[in-house]
Amino acid sequence: xxxxxxxxxxxxxxxxxxxxxxxxxxxxxxxxxxxxxxxxxxxxxxxxxxxxxxxxxxxxxxxxxxxxxxxxxxxxxxxxxxxxxxxxxxxxxxxxxxxxxxxxxxxxxxxxxxxxxxxxxxxxxxxxxxxxxxxxxxxxxxxxxxxxxxxxxxxxxxxxxxxxxxxxxxxxxxxxxxxxxxxxxxxxxxxxxxxxxxxxxxxxxxxxxxxxxxxxxxxxxxxxxxxxxxxxxxxxxxxxxxxxxxxxxxxxxxxxxxxxxxxxxxxxxxxxxxxxxxxxxxxxxxxxxxxxxxxxxxxxxxxxxxxxxxxxxxxxxxxxxxxxxxxxxxxxxxxxxxxxxxxxxxxxxxxxxxxxxxxxxxxxxxxxxxxxx
Length: 373
What we know:
Shape: globular
Largest sheet: 8 strands, parallel, barrel
Distance between the termini: 34 Å
Strand order of the largest sheet: 3-4-5-6-7-8-9-10
Helix content: 25-40%
């Protein structure tokens, strides 16, 4: 297995933490990065918010001193604004790598022509990629996308060729359409087809990687050059230790007992408090992680509820102390976690599907002035 080469960057193992809104902040990236190497991407940043120097956005791109390489994912629909944002990152040394989001399926993004809706507009996609690469200097620019809007409007092969032609350093494909959202099964065959069509730059696979063995199977079946892991690491930052091990040819897997999980939960909440400078905000933000960390373990409903509604670190720690520290890692939890439901339709701007080569830039409201998804 080879390192992942993104321009001048070399990433080992060839594993990427997918940017997830409200999840991949500095504390969570720290927990994952400590487990094993790879590329750990921050939450999605809106290009308009960045160029306007929105305070919340600048807090979100705060990296720890030891965090190398620093990776920012940008969301944008206007080539000019995207170019300005990438130039800021390069000129002000805000990051070492820029990823562009063309995969977000949430309605508030697609209904404005962004995320997974945008690659349907081939010329607009080309213009955005061209401006990003032109303004990046020596920074590698990559892109993450989905197969398309739905099975009748697939875009990934066209988008892959456009990316190569415009100088993008790598492409990541989530093997689902926007309509699938996070439902059904990821289409790994599409990743293989993209790899066959795009031989000049690395192709990364994303979707349904719940274990290190899934990652190896994806690479073997598709020929992809690396994997992007999202929901599979929710409540399991040690998945990156498994991924590092499997890439080194080791069969060792991390199976922590509940006491070790509780200690990680405590540290996660503590790091959030240090990051947010507000214990109340940090503990409230941590609540969504409780169910993921405890998935499969035998924990009473009352204790689960108290942990998921704790308002202070002290309250959270009181609940964690009641967990059985010797309870072993449960079987069968290398399985879907997080969002799993498909959509009944994809929300798009009026007339969006009329002309796939229309270069009209979506309106100003397509780029919010704040970040975070």
